[in-house]
Amino acid sequence: MIQLASRRAAAHISQQWRCKNHLPHRKTAAAATFSTLKTTTPQACTPSLAPLGKYADPSRYLQPHPNNNITPHIASLVGRDLHLRPSHPIGIIRSKIQEYFASLSTSSTADGTTYKIFDAEDPIVTTQQCFDDLRIPPDHPGRAPSDTYYITDTKLLRTHTSAHQSQHLRSGVDAFLCCGDVYRRDEIDATHYPAFHQMEGVKLMSTEAMIGANGLNEEEWLQSPECQLIEADLKATLEGLMDHLFGPTKKRWNEDFFPFTQPSFELEIYHNDEWMEVLGCGVIHEQVLYLSNRSDRRGWAFGLGLERLAMILFKIPDIRLFWTEDERFHRQFKEGKIVEFQPYSKFPPVFKDIAFWTSDKHTTSDNFVENDFFDIVRSTAGDLVERIELIDSFTHPKTGRSSRCYRISYRSMDRNLTNEEIDELQFKVRDETSTLGCQLR
Ligand code: DAH
Fold first, then answer.
1. What whole-number distance in Å separates Cα of residue 92 and Cα of residue 98?
2. Residue 64 C-alpha to ligand 1 middle, in angstroms?
């Protein structure tokens, strides 16, 4: 179960930016959908008891721009700073990774690299930072409002920590680690949550080691000893990181594609009898360096998802647990220690189905965006939603209208749910769903 869950969580690392895994193009979220949502407060959002960070201010995110598709639930997650809490599994993993990179500058094989640490940057970034500086083209599905939370048409919640690469390179930093919360509109199940955490790493090689890199065309560069040196340094560094986190582990490298690196790779580790993808990385694309005014340098970059690693290392079965304030969760973890999570309870789920035509009765043209529906459910029921599954879909042979039926599993991680409270939530979900232009059945 955990293995299966963890494998699916790989989507959170990098799927969005891979060309080979382009998501099907979906239609733009209707802005109107969210204007109704903005007035609702999520029913079952765990209140945060821990001190909130400086970005915890929903009014920064819920702005009256026609392209704003941020829900109150999402706005309430920003600034929780799980990665900065020393005894939170996400904070523990962050420290372990930083500790490994710090050890590289003092180990016997050290090359003198010191990684500057950034872990408190503003999660609001521009489309320039998040996409253009990284060569992600305007028509890339990962930029679509169906996949990304926009504040205005040029400001958004970062979808990956790579959004900070160019700014740090431009300001002259040669090696850094950058950790933070990132946001993506996505499906709902045990391994997908619209907010999660990533760690980005970047290292530029010394100018002396790259002397032969000047004046080469693309093909010559990819074959050059300099490019191969970067690749070898990148792979050795990340293999060392995996051994530091998991103990000596079997690993394998696969070729990959990201617009911002060339060549690009993914690393898999063998854990609990299966291969699992843990990160994406590569040699920084020449043009990314050019756009950051660092054409004179070459180097590597990687990005990894912290939830995925934490779910594997702490055996945490549901991604929502990272956001709970339940003491029974938090008292199990201590700064610097990786321990196996002991489930404190498993309360029974409550299932509710919802079926609707994805257009209203007068038209067959359908603007249904699945992530809009998922956001509606999450905004209404908060973290009580465990999973949403499409259990049936068909097109009526005569009218040509399409219908979908979803099963929503509600389950609290902390208490028993009553049928009445879930009925009430389900009513609200139905009401909100009709604002999507769907006709309930
Ligand atoms: N930003 C990518 C993602 O979230 C992950 C990634 C891949 C980061 C390759 C990198 C990299 O720095 O070189 O999907």
1. 10
2. 31
pLDDT tens-digit readout, 48-83 = 667 889 999 999 999 999 999 999 999 999 999 999
Mean pLDDT along residues 99-117: 85
Inter-residue contact 258 to 137 (CB < 8 Å): no
Per-residue pLDDT tens digits for 134-186 = 999 999 999 999 999 999 999 999 999 999 999 999 999 999 999 999 999 99
The CB of 193 under 6 Å from ligand 1? The reply is: no
Q: Ligand 1 centre and the CA of 258: distance in Å?
A: 7
- Two structure tokens written together for 308: 């995925």
User: Which of 260, 283, 289 best tests ligand 1's pocket when mutated (most atoms within 8 Å of CB)?
Assistant: 260
- Among 300, 330, 360, which residue terminates a domain? 330
Alpha carbon of 304 to ligand 1 centroid (Å):
7
Segment 34-43, tens digit of pLDDT = 434 443 445 4
**301 C-beta closer than 6 A to ligand 1:** yes
Q: Are residues 305 and 394 in the same domain?
A: no
Question: Cβ(104)–Cβ(112) under 8 Å?
Answer: no
Same structural domain, 107 and 246: yes
The identity of residue 105, as a single letter, is: S
The reply to whether ligand 1 has any atom less than 6 angstroms from the CB of 194 is no
The residues, ordered by sequence, that sit 6+ positions from 413 with a Cβ below 8 Å of its Cβ are 318, 320, 321, 324, 326, 329, 345, 347, 383
Q: What is the pLDDT of residue 18?
A: 65
Find all residues with CB under 8 Å of 248, minimum gap 6, and list them: none
Domain containing residue 227? 2-330
pLDDT digits (tens, 9 = 90+) for 184-200: 999 999 999 999 999 99
Cα distance between residue 237 and residue 220, in whole Å: 25
Q: How far apart are CA 384 and CA 350, in angstroms?
A: 10
Q: What is the Å distance from ligand 1's center to 197 Cα? A: 12
Count of the separate structural domains present in the chain: 2
CATH number of the domain to which 361 belongs: 3.30.70.380
Residue of minimum CA distance from atom 9 in ligand 1 = 281
Q: Is residue 156 part of a domain?
A: yes
Q: What is the position in ligand 1's atom list of the atom closest to the CA of 16?
A: 14
Taking the centre of ligand 1 as the mean of its atom positions, its distance from the CA of residue 196, in whole angstroms, is: 14
Using the mean position of ligand 1's atoms as its centre, give its distance from the Cα of residue 170 in Å.
Answer: 18
